[in-house]
## 1
Amino acid sequence: MNDRQPVIVDAVRLPIGRRRGVYADTRAEYLLTAVLKGIVDRTGIDPSQVEDVVVGCVTQNQEQGNNIARIATLMAGFPVEVSAVTLNRKCGSSQQAVNQAAQAIIAGDADVVLAAGIEHMTRHPLGTDRVPEPPELTEEYEIIPQGVSAERIADKWNLSRSDLDEFSYRSHQLAARARSNGEFSREILPIQVEKDGASILVNEDEGIRPNTTVERLGELKPAFIDNGKITAGNSSQISDGASAVLVMSRKKASDLGLKPRARILARGVIGADPTLMLTGPIPLTKLILEKAGLSVRDIHVFECNEAFAAVTLAWMKELQPDIQKVNPRGGAIALGHPTGASGARIMTTLLHELEDMDKELGLQVMCCGGGMATATIIQRV
């Protein structure tokens, strides 16, 4: 038995809020603080045992600037000795936080790391931290919006508008069924917030549309280019949310009397063509499976982030997984995509899916802005 094996002890997330929705009046720091406190309360761990808090966040300005990880760690009542860092690997930021926590444990630098993610896209719209790219970059690479990249992917993999809309409908239906059946209840941390002067309890994801249809989705206009296929309906939702995953060495979990729920089996990152930008999950899935000595057939549940329906469908065309194993509770098209929080949110959902289905191996993969991808394989223990 490897004492330094990184294991997941718990994983939680807030309900995902729609843009200008339930969290519109709540600062980002409070959302992140809630999940940090929540995971401590759920596990009963003494916060002084946590050696580092690693938080993914994409738009690091204003309330999300100033190393929001450190601010929220102090607000959550952790001892001042518990350090914290905020990182940005675009959409894969909090998945990177989980992977970085595992790396610290394997290296012997820490035994307990709390990985988390935050993104309040209502109060800090995506892109508000950007400045014009230097000419040395733009002369070499065509810098385009992600939606245009998704259009190119749809064309390259011969995906029709109906393909995209049907997949998006599937996402909403699966998420609605999971919500109705209470399948998100164990992973969601309810939160009390103020909205329009009233106190409200948020305990469900806000973006799921159970009554949408393929026909309604088909009526939406292209969002990025004239006569295009990519619409608001077959793209991920702009959202607000926070998530957290508690990672430990196997020995430390045993010493603290905590039962590991999964081990982190493999991790990986890759760069991809920045003019297609969102294709990284394809080569990275092949790479991480090879690293782990596994095949597509060995994986019981896949979570491929639905940044756009085109991204997941192209990935499926190349990898040929059983579609029943892919995003079985819907994805970002229905649930939302609070970018910095999505990596740990998806890991949280994947862990609970494996447990509820009594399955063993799960693979999570995400495309990232700028032409990158992150991936993780976990195994229930």
Note: The radius of gyration is 19 Å.
## 2
Amino acid sequence: MASEAEKTFKRFAVFGESSSSGVEINNKNFSKLCKDCGIMDGKMVTSTDVDIVFSKVKDKTARTITFAQFQEAMKELGQKRFKGKNPDETLENIYKLMEGKDPATPGVTKATTVGGVSRLTDTSKYTGSHKERFDESGKGKGIAGREERSENSGYVSAYKGAGTYDKKKES
């Protein structure tokens, strides 16, 4: 049975890498794992530290590291992240951070209408000429809401007696 840390390692190893079997992890996904799990905190452990440790534990020609090498890397990063604790304890703490974590997918955000957005998209709060572009339900009127349409009836726009010519003739 794989440990929680190993499961997390596998999930990140195959993330975005269709050819990966989950046995080895590349630098990009290793960095992602460190960032998403909070191992890289920007203070004690930076992205540079993560890259340096990755390069240190991988084989000279390899582009990926195995889980065993990953554990070495985590011991090293753990020493930076949790200063003053013994290596086994730091590894424990790192694994706690990793438990049950999945690769986050930025850019695949759920549509939110919180705060500023809902205020901007609420058509009932529109004023001036913008208000006329939407009906009461908040649905846009399309081109009719954007352009002044002329009637082509032959009458001048402000003429009140439109359509009364025929009636006058009969009387």
Note: Residues 36 and 67 are 18 Å apart (CA to CA).
## 3
Amino acid sequence: MLKINNLHAQIEDGAEILKGINLEIKPGEVHAIMGPNGSGKSTLSSVIAGKEDYEVTDGEIDFEGEDLLEMGADERAHKGIFLSFQYPVEIPGVTVTNFIKTAINETRKAQGLEEMGASEMLKLIRENAEKLGIRKDFLSRSLNEGFSGGEKKRNEIFQMMMLNPKLAILDETDSGLDIDALRIVADGVNAFKNENNAVLVITHYQRLLDYIVPDFVHVLSDGKIIKSGGKELAHELEARGYDWVIEEAAV
């Protein structure tokens, strides 16, 4: 589904952050990327999603056989890439429901489909809101305005379930969540994933991976993936930290 080859990217001032990322994600897989602060985890998610603050200087990103780097952020979203932000932005005056309706119908339009009917849309909203414990009054509030950290993250997962992307990238969605909110978010992700989509989880903490069990865990340090393994690697990182992996990679 996603193939990244020798990806290099820098910010506007020329500082290189990604220094040769190689990663392949297939349908049905859950991948987790862990690493110390400043290693490039959020940059990688932003580059895949098409954020314009970063310049790709070398390498390739293919998504289902197409060159992702030739597409704008909106085109990537319409192709089925979803990014759950670490810090979701507030949009006063735009309700959660209207935002969702617009996003779904713009994607359907880009795919040559008719708009989703009102009754079908309402049924889908109710089903997914119920799965995440979202109250009816929540849906009429302005997007993320006055939301707690947990409410913002829950809303991100709600958007993911409504949009039903092919690749969902969760950029530290677990940060700032208490254990109950963490479980709700994880339950939403687990209800979403299937053999036809894929999930890329970016996190500092192994605790999220107790609930969203990854097929592969990758350690990112100084702009490169320096170690990959199964779910047991996350437990080892929790117990031992990152220094041993960085030292091992330097040898």
Note: The mean pLDDT is 90.
## 4
Amino acid sequence: MTAPPAPSSAPLSGMLVADLSRVLAGPYATMLLADLGADVVKVEHPERGDDTRAWGPPWAGDQSAYYLALNRGKRSLAVDLKDPDGLAAVRTLCARADVVVQNFRPGTAERLGLGYADVAADNPGVVYCSISGFGPGHLRPDRPGFDVVIQGESGLMSTTGTPEGGPTKIGIPLADVLTGLNATTAVCAALVRRATTGRGEHIHVSLLNSALSALVQVGQSALVTGAEPERVGHAHPSIVPYQTFPTADGDIIIAAGNDALYRALCTVVERPDLAEDPRFRRNADRVAHRDILVAELTAALAKRSAEEWTALLSDAGVPVGKVRGVAEALRTADASGDEATMTVDHPVLGAVELIRPGFRFTGAAPQHGPAVLPPPLLGQHSVEVLRELGLSEERITALVERGTVVQHPVH
């Protein structure tokens, strides 16, 4: 199967990924694999496609922002898996793929003949990643695993919010994103091992395990103490000051993670007495007298703007930042030269701005900017992919004519 051209320096250049996933965790993982240079073929339902195609508003033209966020760098094969010929084409795709990623409900892939055992029988070196909500070993593994459910079940929600308020959902689907990152990490590790051993791998990644592993020090505190961690809102349970503060015109975050940084903070805010006060000299003292110190610092910080304090504290080496809105954060990063966004040439929408991946390469980068395939239209590459799989023109025409395969008219 001939992949579209990718920079030869891209780490996964030449790798073929069969993306049988939908919604967020799986598509996020396969998008990252595409960012690393892989040829990702997104298999979609011929009528509705990925669920997120309908998850609007907001919309960019007739494309949902949700779908655009998760599917750059891919090609779309819209095919009905209930049709034996359509299913056979996808089986051929999986037999030739280096990586298969799926998040069907438990048992569905096996019923379709697309489970690991079926794919590995024809493709023993395949790296096969199964993504689920709760994992195969969990009681009731067939439970649907939506992000908000996992945030509650994992304890993430209980750690988020203020002491006086109830558990709060994190503003982004963090369990899904973490699962996508874990899947990408595991897939890349399996590909490295396969390069020396020739062995394939069946990887299981669940939203619940991804969220539980992300509890890090908060989870460890619960194990050490046997008690439920308390919600601390914008503050930190073990470090003071390490929280948001209001200024004359907006909020800033100060993270004085050690005694030296705290003393530097006191100098900048012109309160050297707070550094010498025995109640605040050491971090443990500051934690014990948190409310008193925070009140003193809040009064001092109210005298200047967020921009002024950010500059002054940064010059002094104190970790500080403004609390920004999402659009402001992206524009600020772009203006600083960080290139947080990129523009792709969409076949219907024209120039579309997308958020770049979180990694950068010092050498020639993998796909970036205009070279990146835009999030595909439903079935945009169906005929192209089927030709690469070796189907005859007559067979492809028959599949399209009976609706088993949908080919978007944009070429």
Note: The chain has two domains: 16-216+340-406, 251-322.
